[in-house]
Amino acid sequence: MVYNAETTLLLISATLFYAESYLTTDTTLNNKRLFS
User: Fold this and answer.
1) Rounded distance between C-alpha atoms, residue 8 and residue 14, angstroms
2) Cα(5)–Cα(11) distance, integer angstroms
3) Which one of 2, 5, 10, 24 has the fewest beta carbons within 10 angstroms of its own beta carbon?
4) Model pTM?
5) Exposure b/e, 9-27, CB count within 10 A at least 16 = b
6) What are the distances in angstroms from CA 31 to CA 6, 7, 23, 27, 35?
7) Dist. CA 32–CA 22, nearest whole Å
8) At the top level of its lineage, which domain of life is listed (predicted)?
9) 22 neighbors 30 (Cβ within 8 angstroms)
10) Within the chain, how many helices (H) and strands (E) appear?
């Protein structure tokens, strides 16, 4: 598949967004385990 620059940027943004959300959720869960 060939992506143009705009599509590539959208994919990168989406990937970063989901990665950040996942990491944030993971960190929150770990903190709850530590401090509860």
Assistant:
1) 10
2) 10
3) 2
4) 0.55
5) eeeeeeeeeeeeeeeeeee
6) 37, 36, 12, 6, 6
7) 15
8) Bacteria
9) no
10) 1, 0
Q: Look up tokens 């929150």; give the residue.
A: 28
Distance CA 20, CA 25 (A): 8
> Could you tell me the end-to-end alpha-carbon distance of the chain, in angstroms, rounded to an integer?
48
